[in-house]
Design a protein that fits this description.
The complex is a heterodimer of chains A (about 450) and B (about 400).
Chain A lengths: L1 H5 L1 E3 L1 H23 L2 H7 L18 H20 L3 H17 L7 H14 L9 H5 L7 E3 H22 L2 H4 L5 H6 L14 H23 L4 H18 L5 H8 L8 H5 L17 H13 L11 H4 L14 E11 L5 E4 L7 H8 L2 H17 L5 E11 L5 E2 L36
Helix pairs in contact in A: 2-4, 2-13, 3-4, 4-5, 5-6, 6-8, 8-11, 8-15, 11-12, 12-13
Chain B lengths: L1 H15 L18 H35 L6 H22 L19 H5 L7 H10 L17 H10 L18 H5 L1 H39 L11 H12 L1 H12 L25 H17 L11 H7 L3 H19 L5 H7 L1 H26 L13
Helix pairs in contact in B: 2-3, 2-8, 2-9, 3-6, 3-11, 6-8, 10-11, 10-15, 11-13, 12-13, 13-15, 14-15
C-alpha cells in the first residue's frame, strides 16, 4: 500500500486539476464581483456573524474588499498558469478562507470545499508540469509525482460525495422525498422537464437517485470499465442540479474536478502527448503521518453530529463543515424579546431592523446564529443607553414544510449564551411527525 | 478526446439550462399550482381593481377638495367635511393597496416595473407637516410642477390629511424654523391660512388623482399583460415564480410597516418609544383613522392570500397554491388568523390613540394577532411555496 502511494505517477492529471481549479476559481471570483455580491454580502450589512474562534476576522473597508476579490481572481489565474504557483496558491487559500470567515451567514459547503482543496494544494507541487514555473525553471519540472498526491485530492473530492450520501440517509429524504418535493414543485415552469417535476414519483426517484449517486459515483469513476458511463452521469446529475437550484459554482466544480478519478495520464491521452518514463522516476518519501491524520479527521469530523442528541437538520449541531448539501428546507420568523434588567420594561425587535434580509433568513434556521444575533441586540441596547438587558428569541421555524415550531427555548436569555462544543440545552427538540407529505393531485 | 467532449457537453448542458429563462414556450405549470394563473388572476381581479377603485376615490377627493377651495364662507364647513369624507374614502382603499405595491406603485429600484408612484400617493412614515406649512407660507404651490421639486412628504395623502383635518391656525414647525423665525406665518392671519390650506389641498388632491390615474394607466398599458405573461418572452418577469415572489414581497408591508411601525411603536413594543406608549407616533395624527388603516392593510392581505374579496367569485390565490401542495390546513389557519387580526383591530374602542390610553394591552393583542400572521408568512408559507423573501438577493445555496 505504502509503496503504491509513494510510486510515481504521471503528473498530467494533477496539472490538469491545478489548471481547471485555477480557471474555475478565477471565473467564480469574477462572477461574484460582477453579480454585485461583494456589496450585497459585505458592504451593505451593518453586522456580521462570526465563527467560533474567528471573532477577530473583520470585514475590510469597501475599496480593500474589491481589491481582495480582484487579487483572488488574479491569484487563481496564476494558479491555473502555474506562475509563481507556491506563492499564488498560499495567498489564494488564505484570502479565500478569510473571505469565508467574514460572515457565517454566507457559509456554503462548496466554499468550504474550495478552502480545503486550496489548503491541500499548498503542499503539493502541482506546477511540476504544464506550468509557466516549469518553463521558467526547467530544473524543477517533473513529469511524474507521487501517487499519494493524486489520492489525497481524490480523497478530498470523494469525502464530499460520501458524506453527502450519508446526509441523505434519513427519513425526510428517503421516505418522504423532502425537501425535493417542495423544491421541484416550484420548478414546473422549466422547459421540457418542468411538467414532470410536480409528480410525486419524480421527487422520490430523484431523492433516491441523488442518494445512490452520491454513494456510488466515486467507485464508478475509479473503475475503468464504468468510468465513461459514470462521468456522463456526473454531467447529467450536476447539469440538473444547476438547472433546478440556485447552487452557484458547485455543479461546475464537481464536473470539472471529478476527472481526478480518471487514470493519471488522462489529460496526456486526451491531448495525444507522449507519456513520461515512469519507471525511471524514484519512489518519493511521503508525509504519511500528516496525510493520515488529515484524512482520518476529514472522514470523521463530518460525523460529529452523531455524538449529539437530536436531529441535526433541526438543531444544526454539526451541520456545517459536514457536507450536508441541499438536504433541508428551513424558513423561520425570529423576534427578539428584550427586557431591561433594571426596569423590567420589555420590547420586541425584528431582526430585519439590523440585518439584511438574506442574513436574517439564514440566521432564522440556525440556533447558534440566533444566539449570536441576541448578543448583537444586547450590545446594541447597552450602547444606546438601555443598560443591562436580557434577550430571548421567539423563533418559529418550519423544517421541510412542517408547521412552524419553536427552535430555541423562548425562556432562555440568549445574550448570556456562549458557543461550546457541548449540546445546547436551549435548543428545543425538533418537531415530531413527517414533513409536509400529502401533495394533492398526483 | 472523448472525455474532453464529455466535459464540453456537460458544461454546455449546465450553461444551457439557465433557470431564469423558460423561453416563451413553456407550458403552464400543471401541478394545481399554476403560478402564472395565480399572479395573472391576482393582477386582474385583485390588484388592478384596487387601484381602479382608488383612482375613482382620488377623483372624488380631487373634486371635493376643489369644491372646498372654492367654497364661500357659508358652505366652507360643509365642503371641508365633504373633502374630509372623500379623503377617508380614498385612504381606506389606498391602505388595501399598500400591501399590493407591485409594479408601477412599487419603488423604482426595488420592484419590477416600479415607478415609485406609491410613495407619491402616500409616503407615511415619511411625513412632515412642517414642510407642508412652509410651502403654504411660501405660497408657491399653485403650479403643480412645483411639487416635482419637493420630497414626497410635502404632498400626497399624508399632506392632504394634515391640511384637511388640522384644526386652528398654528403650524407644525418649531419656533426657530421657517415660517416662524421669519414672521411669514404670523403675517398670514387665520383666514388666509385657512384659504391657503384649502388651496393647497386642491392642488395636492389633483396631483394624487393624476398619480392614481398614472398607476392604472401603467397597469393597463402593459404591466398587467407582463404579469399575466410571466415566464414568457416579452414579460418583465423571467418566471412565474419570480412574479409570485414580487407579489409576496409586497405583502411584507404588513410585517415591516403595519406590525412594526403602525402598532409596535405606538404600543411601546418597540424601543424607539420611550414612554409606556407613544400615541403621537401612530399613523394618522389628524384624521385619527390609524385603526381603520390597519384593518384595511389586513383586508388587502386577505384579498391577495384568498384571491378575491368577501362576496366576490372565488379566484386563485396563495391559499389555493398552499392547498394544492398539501398545506390546506395552513391556508385555512392563515386566513383565520388574518380574520382574527381584523376582528382584533376593529374591536378596539374609539381611535387607536384612545385605545392606547384606555387599554394598551388590547393594542398589544392586535400586534400579537398581526405577528401571528407574519410569523407563518415568513416560515411555513415560504417553505411550502418555495418563495423568496423580499430583497433576499440572488446568492448561491448548497
Amino acid at each position: 500500500m505504502t509503496e503504491r502511494l509513494r510510486a510515481p505517477v504521471d503528473a498530467a492529471a494533477l496539472a490538469a486539476f491545478r489548471i481547471l481549479f485555477g480557471l474555475l476559481m478565477c471565473a467564480g471570483t469574477l462572477r461574484f464581483l460582477l453579480s454585485g455580491w461583494v456589496a450585497e454580502q459585505y458592504v451593505r450589512p451593518a453586522h456580521f456573524f462570526k465563527y467560533p474562534g474567528f471573532e477577530w476576522v473583520v470585514v475590510p473597508p469597501e475599496p480593500a474588499l474589491y481589491a481582495l476579490f480582484g487579487a483572488l481572481a488574479v491569484l487563481a489565474l496564476m494558479v491555473a498558469l502555474g506562475l509563481f504557483y507556491r506563492v499564488a496558491i498560499v495567498l489564494f487559500c488564505l484570502g479565500f478562507s478569510y473571505v469565508q470567515l467574514m460572515d457565517a451567514t454566507n457559509y456554503l459547503n462548496h466554499y468550504y470545499f474550495i478552502a480545503l482543496v486550496s489548503f491541500v494544494m499548498c503542499f503539493l507541487p502541482l506546477h511540476a508540469t504544464w506550468s509557466l514555473d516549469a518553463r521558467r525553471r526547467p530544473g524543477m519540472a517533473r513529469p511524474t509525482l507521487p501517487a499519494w498526491m493524486l489520492w489525497l485530492l481524490r480523497f478530498q473530492v470523494a469525502t464530499v460525495y460520501f458524506h453527502a450520501a450519508l446526509a441523505k440517509a434519513q427519513p425526510d429524504w428517503l421516505l418522504h422525498a423532502q425537501p425535493l418535493r417542495l423544491w421541484l414543485a416550484a420548478r414546473t415552469d422549466l422547459p421540457v422537464i418542468g411538467p414532470w417535476l410536480d409528480e410525486t414519483w419524480v421527487a422520490y426517484a430523484m431523492s433516491w437517485a441523488g442518494f445512490l449517486y452520491d454513494l456510488t459515483i466515486v467507485g464508478f469513476l475509479l473503475w475503468r470499465r464504468t468510468r465513461v458511463f459514470a462521468y456522463v452521469t456526473v454531467l447529467v446529475f450536476h447539469g440538473l442540479t444547476h438547472a433546478l437550484f440556485d447552487i452557484g459554482m458547485f455543479p461546475f466544480i464537481m464536473v470539472t474536478l471529478t476527472p481526478v478519478f480518471f487514470a493519471p495520464d488522462w489529460p496526456r491521452r486526451l491531448l495525444r502527448r507522449p507519456a513520461p518514463v515512469i519507471a525511471a522516476a524514484p519512489a518519493a518519501r511521503w508525509p504519511a503521518v500528516a496525510v493520515t491524520v488529515w484524512c482520518v479527521f476529514h472522514a470523521l469530523f463530518p460525523l460529529r453530529h452523531f455524538a449529539w442528541p437530536g436531529d441535526v437538520l433541526w438543531n444544526e449541531e454539526g451541520m456545517r463543515w459536514s457536507w450536508k448539501v441541499m438536504v433541508r428546507e428551513k424558513s423561520g420568523s425570529v423576534t427578539f424579546h428584550v427586557r431591561s434588567r433594571e426596569t423590567g420594561r420589555a420590547w420586541q425587535v425584528n431582526p430585519l431592523r439590523f440585518l439584511q434580509w438574506r442574513q436574517a433568513s439564514e440566521m432564522a434556521g440556525q440556533p447558534d446564529l440566533i444566539a449570536q444575533a441576541a448578543r448583537m441586540v444586547a450590545g446594541d441596547f447597552r450602547a444606546r443607553g438601555f443598560g443591562d438587558v436580557e434577550v430571548r428569541a421567539e423563533a418559529w421555524v418550519s423544517l421541510n414544510g412542517r408547521a412552524p415550531a419553536l427552535l430555541v427555548d423562548p425562556d432562555v436569555d440568549l445574550s448570556r449564551v456562549e458557543w461550546t462544543w457541548a449540546p445546547a440545552a436551549w435548543i428545543r427538540p425538533g418537531p415530531e411527525g413527517p414533513p409536509l407529505a400529502a401533495m394533492a393531485g398526483r | 478526446m472523448r472525455a474532453l467532449r464529455l466535459v464540453a457537453i456537460g458544461l454546455g448542458l449546465a450553461m444551457g439550462c439557465d433557470d431564469g429563462d423558460d423561453g416563451g414556450s413553456a407550458p403552464p405549470a400543471d401541478d394545481g399550482v399554476d403560478r402564472r394563473a395565480i399572479v395573472a388572476s391576482l393582477g386582474e381581479h385583485v390588484i388592478l381593481p384596487t387601484y381602479e377603485r382608488f383612482a375613482q376615490a382620488a377623483t372624488a377627493l380631487r373634486d371635493a377638495a376643489q369644491a372646498h377651495a372654492t367654497a364661500g364662507p357659508a358652505d366652507a364647513a360643509a365642503k371641508r367635511a365633504a373633502a374630509q369624507a372623500a379623503w377617508r374614502a380614498a385612504m381606506a382603499v389606498w391602505q388595501e393597496a399598500e400591501v399590493m405595491k407591485v409594479g408601477p406603485a412599487g419603488m423604482a429600484d426595488m420592484t419590477v416595473g416600479g415607478q415609485s408612484l406609491g410613495d407619491e400617493v402616500y409616503s407615511w412614515p415619511n411625513v412632515n407637516p412642517c414642510r407642508v406649512d412652509q410651502e403654504i407660507a411660501a405660497g408657491r404651490f399653485s403650479d403643480p410642477a412645483h411639487f416635482e421639486t419637493l420630497f414626497p412628504n410635502a404632498y400626497g395623502l399624508d399632506a392632504l390629511e394634515y391640511v384637511l383635518f388640522v384644526e386652528g391656525a398654528d403650524n407644525a414647525c418649531a419656533p426657530q424654523q421657517a415660517p416662524n423665525n421669519n414672521g411669514a406665518w404670523a403675517a398670514l392671519g387665520a383666514d388666509e391660512i385657512a384659504k391657503r390650506r384649502a388651496d393647497y389641498a386642491a392642488v395636492v388632491a389633483g396631483q394624487v388623482a393624476r398619480d392614481a390615474e398614472a398607476i392604472v394607466a401603467a397597469w393597463r398599458g402593459g404591466f398587467l399583460a407582463s404579469l399575466q405573461a410571466a415566464g414568457t418572452s416579452g414579460s418583465a418577469f423571467p418566471t412565474a415564480r419570480a412574479a409570485l415572489d414580487e407579489v409576496f414581497a409586497a405583502m411584507f408591508y404588513v410585517d415591516l410597516t403595519t406590525k412594526d411601525l403602525k402598532l409596535a411603536v405606538p404600543a411601546g413594543i418597540a424601543e424607539t418609544c420611550g414612554p409606556e406608549t407613544c400615541p403621537d407616533d401612530a399613523e394618522s395624527q389628524f384624521a385619527h383613522v390609524s385603526k381603520e388603516n390597519i384593518a384595511a392593510n389586513m383586508r388587502g392581505l386577505r384579498a391577495v392570500i384568498v384571491g378575491n374579496r368577501p362576496g366576490e367569485a372565488a379566484r386563485p390565490g396563495f391559499d389555493d397554491a398552499l392547498s394544492a401542495l398539501g398545506a390546506g390546513a395552513l391556508a385555512t389557519s392563515l386566513v383565520a388568523d388574518i380574520d382574527a387580526a381584523i376582528a382584533a383591530v376593529e374591536g378596539l374602542e374609539g381611535t387607536l390613540q384612545q385605545a392606547l390610553a384606555s387599554d394598551p394591552a388590547k393594542v398589544r393583542a392586535v400586534h400579537a394577532a398581526v405577528k401571528k400572521v407574519t410569523d407563518v408568512m415568513k416560515s411555513q408559507m415560504v417553505s411550502v411555496l418555495a418563495l423568496t423573501l423580499p430583497r433576499e438577493g440572488a446568492a448561491d445555496n448548497d
